[in-house]
Amino acid sequence: MSAPVQIAPRVRQMAAADLDPVLLLAEGQPQAPHWARRAYRSLLNPLASPRRIALVAEEEAVVRGFAVASAVGPEAELECLVVAIGFERRGLGRALVRSLAEALDVAGVENFLLEVRAGNARALAFYRVQGWVECGRRPRYYADPEEDAILMSLRLG
């Protein structure tokens, strides 16, 4: 089996025209946030509180992934990272996280945080390779199945 092709995706700010493809991506993935359309639309409001950065990753002008981070003061949280099924391990997720970190750094954020299921070895490895470190644990945070949340952080700046 050959390794997935590494690409240089185009990462850009999410726009109103991206709502339909983003909703389709979210619907197709159980771990994605299944927010109402109005919640996704609110990501586009630059005056919303908390401040959010929403990015999409395109391959051949088709949205293949998206990521959202919220920022309050010197901290930000990765709310979601979604890559289309069949497009994993091609650099889309890495490009989205790197672009979010760069935008947050410019905005004065010092600490980028996330939480991930303790049993999600693939996600934990993905973040660790990019420099994230474990900084805490929330016992029995997730339900169905019950599982701890691993808290991770990435220092910016």
Summarize the structure in words.
The protein has 157 residues and is an alpha+beta fold. The chain has a single domain (10-155), classed as Gcn5-related N-acetyltransferase (GNAT) (Aminopeptidase), CATH 3.40.630.30. 25% of the residues lie in helices and 38% in strands. It has 4 helices and 7 strands. It has helices spanning 19-27, 37-42, 92-106, 121-129; strands at 10-13, 51-59, 62-72, 75-83, 111-117, 133-142, 147-155. A 7-stranded mixed beta sheet has the order 1-2-3-4-5-7-6, sandwiched between helices. It is globular. The mean pLDDT is 92.
CATH superfamily: Gcn5-related N-acetyltransferase (GNAT)
Alpha-carbon distance between the two ends:
39 Å
Q: What's the number of extended β-strand segments? A: 7
Largest sheet: 7 strands, mixed
Major sheet: order of its strands?
1-2-3-4-5-7-6
Number of folding domains? 1
- What does the average pLDDT come to? 92
Q: Helix segment count?
A: 4
CATH class: Alpha Beta
- Low-pLDDT ranges: none
CATH topology grouping: Aminopeptidase
User: How much of the sequence is in beta strands?
Assistant: 35-45%
Determine the structural class based on helices, strands and strand pairing.
alpha+beta
List the topology elements.
Layout (H helix, E strand, L loop, with lengths): L9 E4 L5 H9 L9 H6 L8 E9 L2 E11 L2 E9 L8 H15 L4 E7 L3 H9 L3 E10 L4 E9 L2
Parallel strand pairs: 4-5
Antiparallel strand pairs: 1-2, 2-3, 3-4, 5-7, 6-7
Any descriptors?
globular; seven-stranded mixed beta sheet; 38% strand; Aminopeptidase; alpha+beta; 157 residues; 4 helices; 7 strands
